[in-house]
Amino acid sequence: MTALAGTRELTRLAMRRDRIMLPVWVYLIVIMAASTVSSTKGLYPDTASRVKLAANTNDTPALVALYGRVYDPTSLGAVSMLKLNVFGALAAAALSIVLVVRHTRADEETGRLELVGATAVGRRAPLTSALSVVLSTNVMIAVLCALALTIAGLPAAGSTAAGLAWGGVGVAFGAITAVVAQLTSHARTATGYSFAILGAFYLVRALGDTSDADGPRWLSWLSPIGWGQQFRPYAGNRWWVLLVMVVFAAVMTVVAYSLVSRRDIGAGILPDRDGPATASPRLAGAVSLWWRLQRGSVLGWAIAFLVLGAVLGGIATNVGSIADSRQAHDMITKLGGEKGITDAFLATEMGFAAIFAAAFGVQAVGRLRAEETGQRAEPVLATAVSRWRWASGPVLVALLGSAVMLLLSGAVSGAVYAGQSGDGAQFGRLVGASLVQVPAAWVVIGAVVLGYGLVPRFTAAGWAVLVAFLLIGELGPLLKLPHWIMDVSPFAHTPKLPGTSWSATPLVWMTAIAAVLVGAGLWTFRRRDVTA
């Protein structure tokens, strides 16, 4: 038996397990690409408007840090890729991280790989299978995105470069995660470290892009995300950058394979740190235990919201020049409000912050199912801890944490905007604009809690619900969808602040609905079997 025996069978099994997640994720990336190109055509129909947008973007450090630079202001494709360059790469990278951890470290942690390894399966087969899935998925992303961009009316060469850039970034981060999965002992740790590396590379790329011509712009070349942008689709099409990605992925893969042979199944190269012999009094309750388990995740999300708030506050003073065309003005107004283009922009971005806060809540509640399937719930519930107390921990973390995240982003963006504009009143306005988003995020969290109580294996469907709400909010006004469809999303009922008059009635109703959903979810959990 060779070290790769059973790879094909494991790959087929992994594809079957991901038969729903992969098509949905890839489809969303493709739709994002095609819809962005279509909207850019309408917003910036002539060369003059695109040149002005590119100039304003490249002269605004906050926008360059967020999206990167526009390398050919006359090209519709280059302008369309302003957001897609980064967001497409991040989406592909995130998917690769999830896939590698899911089919390596997570399977080891649950004991599935130990059972599989007792059969005619080689030592390196699970890792090879995971990397095969990642490679085929990113090839699919590259091909379908290239076709979608070409069909949308962009040049085929540039579209191919854009697809290869996203797929290359995904493969690179899949290889990085393969190494991280060998170093750590737990799936949660591997995922956290991998996303931390993704965030670090994003910041390195931002530092390089925002540097002066005589500054350290070379930092962008230290980041796989920077490599994706250096493809420069529709602005030169640097095909040779693909070679950099392939070499990097190959080196990281070799490192991962060498580490596989140096550790035991279920263990990591890095030893687990021993905890204190005596537990702190702060761990005396179920809620305290949940906080201890999720504090690292909360801190990571909090940092992300702080950065988001700083970027939004920095961009706010330049919105007038960025949205100079009538079409761009109308789009932002439709999405965000009616009074003032800057207020409309801020209202739109606060809506996105609410989506991110809901994503944090979905992840926090998802820990319930992870602890249950990992058989860590039963030992706790065998003590004097009731089901209600045990399950309420992550729910409280999700509800309170999402509110704190929005408060952080609103406070930081308000402080930055007030400092740049000299108007101190902007701080309170943006704090209020962020807090009115909380009930909508709570409704999404309540829906996930109810799903966990009723059909726990569908807890992950909360991500699908969140994505559906996101697409309704993003594409609804542009596609002129019927109001009854747009009203399905709780984010459609949030006041568009700052800049418009508002009523507290929808906030009260959404808070009540969230409370009912959470209560029903906890009640149904008490009446079903654990791990059912």
Q: What's the rounded overall pLDDT mean?
A: 84
The tally of helices reads: 23
**Main sheet, how many strands, which sense, barrel?**
none
Strand content: under 5%
Distance between the termini: 38 Å
Identify low-pLDDT runs. 335-339
Number of strands: 0
What proportion of the residues is helical, as a percent range? over 70%
Q: Provide the number of structural domains.
A: 2
Radius of gyration: 24 Å
The SSE string, one letter per element, is HHHHHHHHHHHHHHHHHHHHHHH
Task: Output the structural class.
Answer: mainly alpha
* Shape, principal axes of CA atoms: globular
Description:
By secondary structure, the chain is mostly helical. The chain has two domains: 1-270, no CATH class; 284-532, no CATH class. Helix content is 73%, strand content 0%. It has 23 helices and no strands. The protein has helices at residues 7-17, 21-43, 47-58, 61-67, 76-103, 105-110, 112-117, 125-151, 156-183, 187-209, 224-230, 241-260, 286-316, 319-322, 326-336, 341-373, 377-381, 387-421, 425-435, 438-454, 461-479, 483-486, 505-526. Helix 9 crosses helix 10 (187-209). The longest helix is centred in the C-terminal third of the chain and has 35 residues, at 387-421. The protein starts with 6 loop residues before the first helix and ends in a 6-residue tail after the last helix. Mean pLDDT is 84; it is low at 335-339. Keywords: Membrane, Transmembrane, Transmembrane helix. The chain crosses the membrane at residues 20-37, 82-101, 133-157, 163-183, 190-208, 239-260, 298-316, 344-366, 395-418, 430-455, 462-486, 506-525. This is ABC transporter permease.
